[in-house]
Automatic annotation (TrEMBL):
A GO term for molecular function: DNA binding
SUPFAM superfamilies: lambda repressor-like DNA-binding domains (SSF47413)
Protein name, UniProt field: Putative transcriptional regulator
Annotated HTH cro/C1-type domain residues: 5-59
């Protein structure tokens, strides 16, 4: 899953540390999310979307695998 978290966070001039503190996760979690190494739980995705006043779909981009597309 791709995401726009880094772009959105930087646009709001918020550091990874600040966002992590607000969301009650580690800075490493934010870094991993931004690099696409980690997909958030649904709860964390909602918290992120709510913080930025956006929909989950505006931040996280789900792309189906070609194998699963019908």
């Amino acid at each position: 899953m791709n995401n726009r978290l880094e772009e959105i966070r930087k646009g709001q001039q918020i550091t990874q540390e600040e966002l992590a503190s607000i969301l009650e996760v580690s800075r490493q979690t934010i870094s991993s999310l931004e690099k696409g190494r980690y997909n958030p739980s649904i709860l964390l995705a909602f918290k992120i979307a709510r913080y930025f006043n956006m929909s989950i779909e505006d931040i996280f981009i789900y792309e189906e695998d070609d194998e699963n597309a019908e």
